[in-house]
Amino acid sequence: MKLKNNRISFYSTQNILGIFTLLLTVFTSCEDFVDVDLPPDLVDTKEVFASDGSAEAAMRGVYAYTTNSTAITSMFKIVPLSSDELEKTSYSTEYEMFATNKIDPTSSTISNIWRGYYNIIYQCNNIVLNVSESTELSEDLKKELEGEAKFMRAFCYFYLVNLWGDVPISLVTDYDVVRLLPRSSSTQVYGQIEADLLDAQSKLSDELYTTAGERIRANKWAATALLARVRLYQENWADAETQASAVINSGYYELESLTDVFYATSRESIIQLANAGTNRYTYSVLTTSSLTNPPYRLTSYVSDSISDDDERRAAWLTPTLNGPYKYKAYSNTRGPEEPEATNMLRLAEMYLIRAEARTQQDNITGLNSAETDLNIIRSRAGLSGTTATTKATMLQDIYTERMRELFCEWSHRWLDVKRIGQANAIFGSRKTEWVSEASLFPIPYDDIQENPYLTQNPGY
Questions:
Q1: Among 20, 105, 124, 166, which is disulfide-ready with 445 (CB 3.0 to 4.6 Å)?
Q2: Lowest mean per-residue pLDDT among 181-185, 313-317, 348-352
Q3: pLDDT tens across 152-206, in order?
Q4: Contact by Cβ (8 Å): 420, 396
Q5: Does domain 9-68+105-184 have CATH number 3.40.1260.10?
Q6: Whose CA is closest to 36, among 197, 129, 164, 145?
Q7: Sorted alphabetically, which CDD domains does this protein's record hold (predicted)?
Q8: How many C-beta neighbours within 10 Å does residue 43 have?
């Protein structure tokens, strides 16, 4: 069956470059975000990668597209409905599927998330392949762009493998190859993520790429931070600690006050997604009025875990008509003179990764231990130090702190509960219709129909 022209993961080269052009046009209103515009009539691949300026503009177009992709926005407001973080306050068929963990493979939302990630991957593949073949680009820029594209590709595959399990690995832009790719094992996907991040580390500069104080392009430390997370998920505790320590000790990042964490100029941010033009707030996922009912609200389980003496409650939660909603990265309570950005990776996560890795290696209390790292995060929140002294109690304290610190950010809670093997125990006790198969999302129906080598996850 011939694929539809609007299939996200199978754009032709000209269509992809058309996307680059459109994105660059949209983002020219964001001062200094795109330094070099791609001419509207420049859609030939070789022309785009024939000069440093247009090639760099193409990479920035990837970031621009990512900012507004459903694949990204869903990590904050849709996937948390599947876990125990958010609950809906009004009926929507799409939201109901996620909240009850009964996602229909024909869901437009699940299709948009899947295709959104593969669209970003396609664009990254286009850059990697054309940059490596270019004879016109400077060698320094070729390394930089390839490193950035591989970081973004690894980031997308990290979410694909954790949301769906085994997924196709696409490293090319050939339609006839991509449209018939089978699923690769999770081990193979993690192998590709690792390879991309190690190569990105070797190619990217360790200096900050900043625009007006915003950290909106990947550097060596962004690749290192994501690799630290990957190592944690792989249970490679020693290297998870090593990679997290490298970021912490780099000297480029520091914990901000709770009220400043999500500003575009936050020094805690390792890499951000910027918004365009005068829309300098991050997504207003939850309503900002205290007099109205938010479309989703924090569950009592999460909100009650953030006690009154926890300063995150005052800084990141706002009472509404019918329950608390989270401020964090989603409000528009500040004016354009203090813009916000969406953190892809931030320093607090590195401390929590290192705390968990150290605990798993029995470095639990004392100097330079899990206790040290966990208390750094607790102290910023105005909490006293942990009283945990055993591996079991320290791990529990770390998991609880991850929920409090990272709630509704990039679906950390959904992924954490699954990776520690507690999905059935935790979600089963809080969700009346939970079944174990719900821990993986369904492959979109249309993709199954159009690719005979693509199989469905169990239970769908």
A1: 105
A2: 313-317
A3: 999 999 999 999 999 999 999 998 999 999 999 999 999 999 999 999 999 999 9
A4: no
A5: no
A6: 145
A7: SusD
A8: 17
Region of poorest pLDDT, from 41-55, 64-78, 139-153, 414-428: 41-55
3-state secondary structure of 321: coil
182-to-32, 120, 317, 438 alpha-carbon distances in Å: 41, 19, 43, 22
**pLDDT band at residue 295, thresholds of 50, 70 and 90?**
confident
Q: How many CB atoms lie within 10 A of CB 228?
A: 26
Provide the token pair at 161. 């493998």
Predicted structure pTM score: 0.88
Q: Strands 296-298, 317-320: parallel, antiparallel or unpaired by DSSP?
A: unpaired
CA atoms within 13 A on the CB side of 194: 14
Which amino acid appears at position 263 of this protein?
Y
Residue 277's φ and ψ, nearest 5 degrees, are 55, -135
Token pair 């396609």 is found at 122
Strands 317-320 and 323-326: antiparallel
The alpha carbon of residue 94 and the mean position of all alpha carbons in its chain are separated, in whole angstroms, by 21
d(CA 457, CA 304): 35
- Domain residue extents for the chain: 9-68+105-184
Two tokens, residue 269 = 């941010």
Q: Rounded to whole angstroms, how far apart are CA atoms 35 and 401?
A: 40
Q: Encoding tokens for residue 29?
A: 């209103």
